[in-house]
Write a structure and sequence with these properties.
CATH architecture of the largest domain: 3-Layer(aba) Sandwich
Largest sheet: 6 strands, parallel
Strand order of the largest sheet: 8-7-6-9-10-11
CATH topology of the largest domain: Rossmann fold
Number of strands: 11
CATH class of the largest domain: Alpha Beta
Order of helices and strands: EHHEHHEHEHHEHHEHHEHEHEHEHEHHH
Helix content: 40-55%
Structural class: alpha/beta
Strand content: 5-15%
Radius of gyration: 21 Å
Shape: globular
Length: 354
């Protein structure tokens, strides 16, 4: 069985790709990965040289002879596979339709080319979803959204994972010099609906002046967050952290926090548990699939600042409980969210599409 894999350049997957390929190979599936640099970015790009070359696509297909094409990008590469009548697997990381709706709502009507490009891409994306052989959402929550839109389309959930070896190596790097007790936040401000929940932490910080809150992240919607949280002396913004910086940071904090308005399967929740840190997170999207509530972390309803305060005080006041939840979190992720579990889910998905 051969699968031509396109895209998958999201940082959370590229770190896992080698391990994933090895595990899939052990199951008798051969992958070939092609990236945007190899085949182009596709129309409508502002640089025509980056448009997909149909000739280049056919060259790759004729050389590799794939049984399936899989992509995590909604557009030109999938359409090329459909044109060549190769079964298409669409890997879906987020609620694409809601994200497009939010982009339209926050894009000026004066930016005509950008709005045209978004409309064009949405048209192509829906054609890919409609004509694909299988849609592979990243979480059970997202699977429900897909089934509601395409009730006749086969689906199969394939979670993201983390590499335990990377975390074993990071444990030798040492801790980050930060104040304790503390809550560590790692999330980008790149999607409005996700970021809009973070200001709820302002009231939490006011209620817990002895606890320092650190935020690692950045993005176009950071101005939703910083003006509100920066009012507090117990808040520090770290900006973006590289992967090794994230690992060191999460291994240093007392508790990991995720205040998100919507998330499908945030990798940082898995990473925090790999760092043996208990998690407090908003009960949204696929987050409940990633936290064994009461065992590896605690969940909070959107907007419930009082429960944030209650959970933080409970965990910071009980070191033994934090250690127990941290150890359980590590086991939970190693058993459910690794390259091996991803490969098994992938193999089962191909079986549904064959």
């Amino acid at each position: 069985m051969k699968v031509l894999v396109h895209g998958f350049e999201h940082p959370s997957f590229t770190k896992m790709s080698r391990k994933f390929n090895e595990e899939v190979s052990n199951l008798g599936i051969e992958l070939r990965n092609v990236g945007t640099q190899e085949v182009g970015a596709g129309f409508p790009s502002t640089r025509p040289r980056e448009w997909l070359s149909a000739r280049r696509f056919r060259e790759i297909v004729n050389e590799f002879k794939p049984d399936f094409v899989m992509t995590d990008q909604q557009g030109y590469f999938g359409l090329a596979a459909i044109k060549e009548r190769i079964p298409l697997l669409m890997y879906l990381r987020g609620d694409y339709w809601s994200e497009v709706r939010w982009l339209f709502a926050h894009t000026s009507s004066k930016k005509l080319f950008r709005r045209f490009a978004m409309s064009w891409r949405m048209k192509n994306a829906n054609e890919c979803f409609r004509r694909s052989s299988l849609i592979m959402p990243i979480s059970k929550y997202l699977d429900g959204i897909v089934r509601a839109r395409f009730p006749q389309k086969p689906t199969a959930v394939m979670h993201q994972g983390v590499d335990p070896e990377a975390w074993q190596a990071s444990e030798e790097d040492g801790d980050v010099d930060i104040k304790h007790p503390c809550i560590g936040l790692v999330q980008n401000a790149s999607i409005y609906e996700k970021t809009a929940e973070m200001p709820v932490l302002s009231r939490v910080m006011a209620a817990l002046p002895h606890v320092t809150f650190y935020w690692g992240g950045d993005g176009p919607y950071r101005d939703i967050v910083l003006p509100e949280l920066s009012k507090h002396d117990n808040f520090e913004w770290l900006g973006n952290l590289d992967p090794s910086g994230v690992r060191r940071f999460l291994s240093s904090v007392d508790v990991y926090g995720l205040a998100s308005g919507l998330d499908m399967l945030p990798t940082t929740v898995l990473e925090a548990q790999m760092a043996r840190r208990p998690v407090i997170a908003t009960r949204v999207g696929g987050v409940p699939e990633m936290v064994a509530e009461g065992r590896t972390g605690l969940l909070v309803d959107k907007g419930d600042h009082a429960r944030w305060v209650e959970h933080i005080e409970a965990l910071l006041g009980d070191e033994k409980r934090r250690r127990r939840m941290g150890a359980e979190g590590r086991r939970f992720v190693e058993e459910n969210f690794t390259a091996r579990t991803m490969a098994r889910q992938f193999s089962g998905a191909i079986g549904k599409a064959a």
